[in-house]
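Reopening this one. Same input as before:
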Amino acid sequence: MDVIDLKVEMAAELERILAFWQEHTKDETHGGFFGEIDHLNQVDPSAEKSAILNARILWTFSSAYRLTKKPSYRTTADRAYQFVTSHFVDMERGGVVWSLNADGSVANDRKQLYAIAFTIYGFSEYFGATGNAEALEQAKSLFRSIEDHGYDSDKGGYFEAYAGDWGNLEDFRLSEKDENAPKTMNTHLHIMEAYANLLRYWQDDELKQQLRHLIEISMEKIIQDDSHFGLFFDADWNPTNRNVSYGHDIEGSWLLQEAAEVLGDGALLSQVKDVALKMAEVTFDEGVAPGAGVKEEFHIGHGVKDVTYHWWPQAEGVVGFYNAFQLCGDVKYLNMATRLWEFTRDHILDRENGEWFWHVDENGNPVHDACKVGFWKCPYHNGRACMEIMHRITT
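Same output, byte for byte:
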């Protein structure tokens, strides 16, 4: 497959993904979007609605409208913006609540910095797409909430989560599968991503300073000597395990590069380029199965934890390896990007019911034990991959 074919196929896939979300996910009774839809497109009307799902819908449709100017994408972005603003933003205490009940009432008011970061990401992109000044002010306010409450001025970086009133918690976890650690790679990666997007539209000195800090602490503390991300850390930045997430490694390689490009410091950008290429190389060497996709996770000393291929590492792999090709010109990365798309196209896309399966087994067969839409299953990874390739291939 040449790059023109890749761009054409990804553009068509973006339309297919977004059509699914527009057709199946709108909650006309309680507003916003349904919290969960299974692999057969059956809605669970009682499911909680997560800040993650709604902020990512906001980002995706805002970005798609900015790229394509398709009016229906603007309509969906407007719907997401209004729902996030009216239901998730905590106007009294700052930040955003973690989840809502199906009827839109608050289910969990904890302040997870990960969710606040994605809401900044969504608000800033909505401003970039529409010029809505209120959205930019919302993003600035959320930046202030993170900095006022979450920044560790002693050891650097950001703490993971707080109670609804910004009091301390004993359980910081994003999900049950995560370690209960006060600092994580995942939250820092996505605060960096959000701050970089906000900086495109708001040239604030403190924002620049903190984005630089996030890039530097990623390279100094989070990326380990073997060029893999550490995943979980104590408050002093000691890793609490040495598990590997190949999807995050390849995603982080291009998000670090993007953040440094937005910041615009040539010396830092040169340093990040070397790190990004090392992360791509180690994922290329260790994290992709022959004839298949990006592996899920590896526990050092214990072997592979999950031998299925999840939807999101494939999407990030397409972008991450194409980014590596752009950085160094090595055609092996271009070939890997196209190969991962072909694997995804042939095995992970649900041609019958729309969107992408959550995961497929080691033989490429869909595993029907997870939702099509849910707390974490959003149009962000796959939609963004399509848009990144459309943007990056200019011929």
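So the earlier flakiness isn't reproducible anymore. For the record, The chain has a mean pLDDT of 96.
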